[in-house]
Amino acid sequence: MFAYVARRIMTTIPLLLVGTFIVYALTASVANPLAKLATCTTCDQAAFDRIIDLYNLDDPIPVRYGKWMLGAATGDMGQAPSQGNFDVFPLVMERMANTAQLAIPAFLIIAVLAIALGVFSAVNQYSKSDYFVTGFSFVGISMPTFFFALVLQVIFGVWWQDWFDAKPFYVSQMHMGSIVDIIRSHTLPILTLVLVITAAESRFERASMLEVINSDYIRTARAKGLPRWRVILKHGLRNAMIPLVTIWAIDFAALLGGSVVTETIFSWPGLGPLLLDGIFQGDLNLTMGIVMLIAMLVIFFNLIADLVYGMLDPRIRYE
User: Fold this and answer.
1) What is the mean pLDDT of residues 109-116?
2) pTM as predicted
3) 137: Cβ contacts below 8 Å, ≥ 6 apart
4) For the chain, which has fewer Cβ within 10 Å, the N-terminal or C-terminal residue?
5) Rounded (10°) angle between helices 271-280 and 88-123
């Protein structure tokens, strides 16, 4: 197990370096920190020299990337000019904590619903309930995230207030007062994420479960007289969850990396809007800091998923 983990980590380091270098090179070739000084009539050459020295603009891009990576390895990702020259690392960590307040509860709800709906739909294949779950899934997959977010804002921010003269949930910003305020501000963005992601994951679980329940060992277990639901939950569900674990690893990393559309629509101070600020304002340090974080999350949770495979299926060995 240890040798497998060490080997996986060693093989992902080159991938991480290549991926982040591509992002760094593309961003650096577009973003020009000297552009704002080009129209400045009172700036002297010393101002240009300070910017050049601050961002190492006199070095080629590979050298600049190497210097940035050496700093990032020690926790120094530079400063973010688009955010008032705050240090990138603590800023990204602060925003990630805000994003995690949506990502973690949303993921837990999604995981439970995806398994429940997928198994229920597979066991009742071609029934009315299966068609109902399938219809829900198709609606969730086909509709964009911003559609659900805007619909929830209209229903609970406008219509509900007109109908009952009350607003049960906040439709924007993060409110961290009492527990009631937290629930009111977190509910709608979490519900948006749950609707969109559960729809896709339940389809994966249904397809996987259908393949498992039609396998020989399931039929053998049924022939021995074991109750149907015991066969499905004890013998079938573990194997059917293996493909879903892979999807979970990707989705959870994406949620922790910032749900750009959801957080933007609900004015949530998470990583999503921060990444957009970094991209649109050409903030190289900020963009790279968030991209590095997302890349590490994806690598870490994919490694965790590979280890969980062995727990779900004892036939899988790490050699």
Assistant:
1) 95
2) 0.88
3) 117, 199, 200, 202, 203
4) C
5) 120
